[in-house]
UniProtKB/TrEMBL annotation:
PANTHER family: TYPE I RESTRICTION ENZYME MJAVIII SPECIFICITY SUBUNIT, TYPE-1 RESTRICTION ENZYME ECOKI SPECIFICITY PROTEIN. It comes from Gallintestinimicrobium propionicum. This is Restriction endonuclease subunit S. It comes from the Bacteria. The lineage of its organism: Bacteria, Bacillati, Bacillota, Clostridia, Lachnospirales. One of its GO terms (biological process) is DNA restriction-modification system.
Length: 399
């Protein structure tokens, strides 16, 4: 055992309280993001008395690690006084919170190194599990309780800052949507302006529709390197997959893969540049983001389309996507196969309503500061995540 490290089993104990009252509220699962989530299990005909009760401040983990992408599902209950979990899950608690803070322990579990450790220590034939004995053999540094509180406080401060930036971005996005709706759907900003008939309906005089493909220098998608006999690498050129693009139009850089320079040269058709819009076209459709300098050099696979334009401002096109201009059109034209997908041809056929040049300038004066604000917040959130990761990495040297 490392010096100053302790066995986790000295600090924790299993809890097995059954739901004898048959309650059916707060049925929870555990995600590989190490959070409690509402359970999606089919509960028709379920005997709820067999479920385990987990209380605020207690942990739950899923011993089976073989089907979770090399991660272990484990979480600390903080959002409810109590919940219900499957009887195949393990519930445990800290014996004495004056010796080990549950929040500090959860930070230890949050480290990528713990996921790797859990997989290494898992065993079994049909299913690989990390059983209770192995959990108790986990070694970790246990500094003074004051030091633990200081570490937890620092982490929570960063987390609160991230959530603040996300809320600000939610408001900025809502504002962009409101401006977009006023301009391009309701024409509220053009009282008294003559409306004329177009092939898609009434529009302000001087405006016109243009297909997205005619506004773009490039609409393409990538290739998975493994289909060329090439492997991903630990470092190198960023390789963006659909899962790397968040619902809030930011990038999750921790989910980027990487390729070397030679593979990037083979895939040069799908290189990504600053101000490109990337858009998921297979699996989970319609997630998108505007590329900035923090992402490049980068490439992508066939599940992500690259939309590049110099004929209108990229930020203007980006605001159309935020305004959900494309949603109904793409829903009607989605191809259904093994998984839903959009063809590049369908993307190009999206009709875009364009103001005259003065109107475009006026519109961009309104939305550009909002988009810049969102991008700046994305950058700060990424830096804050890096700080969190650095703090987690330093846990192994905590004294």
């Amino acid at each position: 055992m490392k010096e100053r490290y302790r066995l986790l089993g000295d600090f924790i104990r299993q809890v097995d309280v059954r739901n004898t009252d048959g309650k059916e509220e707060n049925l929870l699962g555990v995600s590989v993001q190490k959070m409690f989530i509402p359970s999606i299990a089919n509960t028709v005909g379920t005997d709820f008395t067999k479920y385990k009760v987990v209380k605020r401040g207690q942990f739950t983990y899923i011993p089976d690690t073989s089907r979770r992408g090399d991660k272990i599902g484990i979480a600390l209950l903080t959002d409810y006084d109590e919940g219900l979990v499957s009887n195949i899950y393990t519930v445990f608690e800290v014996k004495d919170e004056n010796e080990l803070l549950p929040e500090y322990l959860m930070l230890w579990f949050s480290r990528p190194e713990f996921d790797r450790y859990a997989r290494f220590k898992s065993h079994g034939s049909v299913r690989e599990i990390m059983d209770w004995d192995e959990m108790c053999k986990v070694e970790l540094p246990v500094p003074s309780i004051d030091k633990q509180r200081s570490i937890v406080k620092a982490y929570q401060t960063i987390t609160e800052r991230i959530e603040l930036k996300r809320r600000i971005n939610d408001n900025l996005e809502k504002t962009i949507k409101a401006v977009f709706k006023s301009w391009f759907l309701d024409f509220d900003a053009f009282d008294g302006v003559e409306l004329v008939q177009s092939q898609y309906g009434l529009i302000p005089n001087g405006w016109h529709y243009e297909l997205l493909g005619n506004l773009c220098d490039c609409v393409t998608k990538g290739t998975t390197p493994t289909t060329l006999g090439k492997d991903f690498t630990d470092t190198g050129i960023n390789f963006i997959k659909g899962e790397s693009i968040n619902d809030d139009h930011s990038f999750n850089m921790t989910l980027f893969a990487h390729i070397d320079d030679k593979t990037d040269e083979l895939l040069k058709r799908s290189r990504i540049y600053v101000n490109d819009i990337v858009f998921t076209i297979a699996g989970t459709l319609g997630k998108f983001a505007l590329v900035d300098s923090s992402v490049v050099p980068a490439n992508t696979n066939q599940a992500v389309a690259i939309i590049r334009t110099s004929k209108i401002m990229p930020a203007m096109l980006y605001s159309y996507f935020i305004g959900e201009w494309q949603v109904e059109f793409y829903k009607r034209n989605t191809q259904q196969a093994v998984q839903a997908n959009l063809s590049l041809g369908t993307i190009k056929d999206l009709p875009i309503l364009l103001p005259d040049s003065k109107g475009q300038d006026r519109y961009m004066q309104l939305v550009t500061p909002l988009i810049v604000g969102m991008q700046n917040n994305f950058s700060e959130i990424e830096r804050l995540y890096e700080l969190q990761n650095q703090l987690l990495a330093r846990l192994s040297s905590s004294r």
